[in-house]
Recover the amino acids of this structure.
């Protein structure tokens, strides 16, 4: 066993792995199923956790790719990192924007992707990957905030509709059980509680 | 008598010493101002000190005494006010940067005027969460108020400056306001008596509101006698506050008897402790405090209120909607000058669907009726004031059972439902080995005298007692 310290981010290795990660991204947005499948290590130990699926083994990953319909829409990289550990191991991450279908129309999501790579005889392959979306406020709530602010001339809300909608979504979640609570027609508003 | 020693006595003793000439109001006020000048920087309790004004008023009290006139039950007693109360000639900040641009108030708030009419002297205005929308007094513009018991911890909010001022012995009395717990939380964290009378009992005229449907004025003190005196001086009808009770018959009489009883008796008073929702806390000291208060009051039965979580949600929605509506035009004009931690919450509140707000208000009525039924069987309910001891400013999570909750919004877990229906509550302080905690004594509307008696009972038996941190 070698005692040499692991070389972190050797420039040539970083360049090589970053280029491969970028070609994975290109295959993803063009929905090149064969290429996507090929990026993963062909082994039962390969693993991919998607936004809504847990795939154990390269067969499950390949199966998922084939069944999947349209590619991700308007997926745009926000930020990407590459970390290499020696010549054989690396981790790439990516934050991205993507558009998904919501109950009231398209919704913007902020996603995160982490891929662990290893160099095999056949080249760099993904041995483990994880994709998630930040929990986001629905576009319907953002649209409500924008429309209500315009209607009531709350100009300060312009430019802050995401934050405002986030607060409204929090209250909405709390309000669910209270709105479901049945009140009698006679339960009118009463101001002061006196003896 | 040494005025600086007297500073640490009760308001009752201070007023007696001033009336009988043992010490002048001017000397006592000067001692308070000196102590504030010396120690305020370490706590950030005060945002404004009214040195000249207080000394002028003090000399006028001394002149009345020299003439043989009785200046009142609070003769020469220095007190502090949360900086949302109008004080003539001073700008009412309400914790904000924005209101600093307002002209000075032209008159004292009603309660300030009434305390002054009873002989008390206002020495300064205290720090608070911006526009009272906060439970920790971490003010974005004026800094955080530190807890006198542990300076890395919060004094509670939003009336944190007033609580810190009394706990540190700057004054024996201070005024605060309570919308969702803003008196009871700081009273608990600072180990003080914190009295929030029934909604509508004290006039809010001349105080900067936050949530009109819930806002209540109240008192911090280190002695029950002082809270009784201040409350007695302040209550009474005021047509300029639309929700102020028009009558106060018998109140003064029963209060007077509360302060003259040789030994307070609670015979015939039915007490119970609140269970269920109110029983899970994050610290054993809090459970122990509730136990000893409940035992002293004979509060063996356990009562569960119906739908307490919905009551809290209703208070939350009413707060959001009314707070947002109140600040609408300021948000449009001065968004950037608001505390970043609350401005987007206020904007959301200003856009709250009316269906939510009205459901919350109608639920409030439903809950009033259920609470009325509870008070058919019980006179005093006992519950913890806060689920945690004073937190560090960096703390973000509150562990309740096996759940981690965001800390700051949940500090008011046990206070918020009760304010929804305007119940009077006395927070009774219990001292732990390092930090204090508070126990809520909750009564039916209008039962202030009974709650003050129960508090006196606990104080006499040394079950509860406020702390003074030198």
């Amino acid at each position: 066993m070698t005692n040499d310290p692991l070389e972190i981010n050797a420039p040539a290795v970083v360049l090589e792995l970053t280029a491969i990660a970028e070609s994975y991204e290109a295959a993803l947005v063009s929905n090149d199923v064969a290429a996507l499948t090929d990026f993963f290590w062909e082994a039962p130990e390969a693993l991919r956790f998607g936004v809504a699926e847990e795939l154990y083994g390269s067969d499950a990953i390949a199966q998922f790719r084939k069944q999947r319909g349209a590619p991700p829409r308007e997926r745009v990289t926000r930020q990407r990192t590459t970390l290499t550990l020696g010549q054989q191991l690396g981790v790439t991450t990516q934050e991205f924007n993507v558009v998904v279908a919501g109950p009231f129309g398209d919704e913007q999501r902020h996603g995160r992707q982490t891929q662990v790579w290893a160099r095999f005889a056949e080249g760099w392959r993904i041995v483990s990957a994880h994709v998630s979306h930040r929990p986001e406020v629905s576009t319907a709530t953002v649209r409500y905030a924008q429309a209500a602010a315009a209607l009531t001339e709350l100009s300060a809300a312009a430019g802050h509709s995401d934050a405002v909608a986030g607060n409204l979504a929090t209250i909405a979640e709390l309000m669910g059980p209270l709105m479901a609570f049945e009140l009698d027609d006679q339960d009118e508003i009463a101001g002061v509680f006196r003896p | 008598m040494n005025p600086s020693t007297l500073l640490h006595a009760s308001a009752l003793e201070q007023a007696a010493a001033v009336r009988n000439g043992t010490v002048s109001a001017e000397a006592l006020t000067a001692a308070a101002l000196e102590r504030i000048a010396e120690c305020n920087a370490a706590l950030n309790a005060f945002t404004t000190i009214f040195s000249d004004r207080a000394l002028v008023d003090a000399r006028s009290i001394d002149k009345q005494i020299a003439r043989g006139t009785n200046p009142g039950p609070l003769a020469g007693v220095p007190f502090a006010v949360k900086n949302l109360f109008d004080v003539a000639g001073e700008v009412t900040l309400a914790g904000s940067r924005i209101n600093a641009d307002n002209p000075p108030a032209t008159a004292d708030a009603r309660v300030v005027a009434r305390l002054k009419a009873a002989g008390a002297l206002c020495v300064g205005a205290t720090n608070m969460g911006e526009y009272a929308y906060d439970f920790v007094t971490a003010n974005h513009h004026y800094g955080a108020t530190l807890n006198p018991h542990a300076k890395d911890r919060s004094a509670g909010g939003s009336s944190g400056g007033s609580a810190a001022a009394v706990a540190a012995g700057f004054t024996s009395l201070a005024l605060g306001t309570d919308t969702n717990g803003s008196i009871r939380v700081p009273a608990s964290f600072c180990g003080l008596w914190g009295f929030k009378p029934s909604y509508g009992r004290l006039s809010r005229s001349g105080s900067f509101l936050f949530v009109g449907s819930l806002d209540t004025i109240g008192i911090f003190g280190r002695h029950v006698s002082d809270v009784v005196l201040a409350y007695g001086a302040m209550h009474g009808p005021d047509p300029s506050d639309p929700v102020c009770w028009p009558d106060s018959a018998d109140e003064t009489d029963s209060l007077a008897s509360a302060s003259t009883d040789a030994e307070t008796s609670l015979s015939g008073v039915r007490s119970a402790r609140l269970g269920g929702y109110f029983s899970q806390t994050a610290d054993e000291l809090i459970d122990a405090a509730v136990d000893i208060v409940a035992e002293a009051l004979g509060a063996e039965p356990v009562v569960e209120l119906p739908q307490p979580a919905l009551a809290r949600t209703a208070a939350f929605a009413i707060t959001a909607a009314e707070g947002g509506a109140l600040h609408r035009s300021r948000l449009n004009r001065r968004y950037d000058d608001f505390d970043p931690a609350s401005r987007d919450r206020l904007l959301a509140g200003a856009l709250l669907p009316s269906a939510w707000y009205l459901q919350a208000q109608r639920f409030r009525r439903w809950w009033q009726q259920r609470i009325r039924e509870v008070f058919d069987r019980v006179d005093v309910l006992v519950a913890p004031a806060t689920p945690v001891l004073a937190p560090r400013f960096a703390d973000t999570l509150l562990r309740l059972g096996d759940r981690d909750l965001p800390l700051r919004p949940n500090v008011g877990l046990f206070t918020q439902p009760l304010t929804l229906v305007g119940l009077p509550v006395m927070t009774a302080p219990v001292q732990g080995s390092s930090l204090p905690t508070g126990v809520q004594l909750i009564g039916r509307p209008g039962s202030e005298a009974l709650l003050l008696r129960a508090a006196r009972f606990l104080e006499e038996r040394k079950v509860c007692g406020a702390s003074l941190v030198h």
Q: What stands out?
A: The mean pLDDT of chain A is 90. DSSP finds five helices and six strands in chain A.
